[in-house]
Amino acid sequence: MPSTGLEQIPNYFAISDTIGTAGQPRPHQFSPIRAAGYEVIVNLAMPDSTGALPNEAELVRAQGMEYVHIPVVWERPTSSDLEKFFEVLDGHEGRRLFVHCALNMRVSVFVLLYRVIRQGVPLATAQEALARIWEPDETWQRFLRDALDRYQAVPGEHIVPDPRQIVARGYDRILEEYSEWAPRVRVEERARYTAVLLERLPPGAEVLELGCATGLPTTRQLSERFSVTGVDISARQIAAARENVPAARFIHADMTALDFPPSSFDAVAAFYSFIHLPRQDQPALLRKVAAWLRPGGLLVATMGSQAVEAGLEEDWLGAPMYWSSYDAETNQRLVQEVGFSILSAREETAEEFGQPVTFLWVIAEKPA
Question: Residue 1's pLDDT band (boundaries 50, 70, 90)?
Fold first, then answer.
């Protein structure tokens, strides 16, 4: 493999395609950093740290890169420092960041916490990268433990941050991959349940679609016949949907936080979206959906067929992703308990990534 010059920077280690970490670069090393495709330099060292460059901001900007400095006191890392770091990485998601301090010690801990808390990476996986740099001392071990506790990390193999954040950030990251993949899988299944709405509802009916993604193909088909409101938690997916389906109305929101007047819609479609919610939140959303529907309104929804309390996949189409569900029998009971009459409940199995995956499809009606 040809040398990029980055190997000469102390403790250089590429965490991913978008995050590289290291100790303090020398002035001549910012050019190869830029040549390697990095766009933003984030410096966690103090101005008086070993090797610190008083003119680093100028050196970085001279290379056409953005510079961010979050000075972290070695003996006293704080939650405020970590929050600022999270804000910077969140605000530059999708861009290539080179994160450094004096020796990549501060950075390795901060990046571990970002991967675990923000991205949902298993703690054991994130610790492998940390171990390549150093074994944190008592101060930094305590900082790690306190941060994981503060963000209410779930004990066990996976540290699970806010599931909604995982889903939102995940779908933001995989917009292109998902746009290519989704139209090629479960094609007949999606078409069959879209047809239920097309055949049962009159022209001009008000339809709410929960989890519309890019709007293709379902929202576009529905909007040709109905007045459609699409909702998605991913900002990038919603932006794409607005371009793909200009006839529909779109809302960027967490579906559980929505508030519509009673009897606003003739139907609610939720294709592969309930399964991204923590299952304990799904009954409350079903109650909301029942209230939003007019008498005789339809619910067509994908639900889980197996009990999954909190499923986290580290790499789904290129990003961490979260799922949760009750078993098929429980899901049918929950639908009935909020007042729906189930017209159909059918398990559908299709191959995804070479493996059979089964969902429960529910067609239910609000009594007239």
Answer: very low
- Give SS3 for 189: helix
Report how far apart the first and last C-alpha atoms of the chain are (Å, whole number): 69
| CATH superfamily of this structure's domain 6-160 | Protein tyrosine phosphatase superfamily (3.90.190.10)
Task: Give the C-alpha separation, 13 to 329, whole Å.
Answer: 48
- Would you say 311 and 279 are in contact if contact means Cβ atoms under 8 Å apart? no
CA–CA distance, 97 with 178 (Å, rounded to integer): 24
10 Å Cβ neighbour count for 263? Answer: 14
Residue 76: both structure tokens together: 């006293």
What is the residue type of 146?
D
How far is the C-alpha of 297 from the C-alpha of 265, rounded, in Å?
7
Ordered by start, the domain boundaries in the chain are 6-160, 168-365
Task: Say which residue the tokens 């400095």 belong to.
Answer: 69
In CATH, which superfamily holds the domain spanning 168-365?
Answer: Vaccinia Virus protein VP39 (3.40.50.150)
CB atoms within 10 A of CB 102: 20
Residue pLDDT, tens place only, 220-266: 999 999 999 999 999 999 999 999 999 999 999 999 999 999 999 99
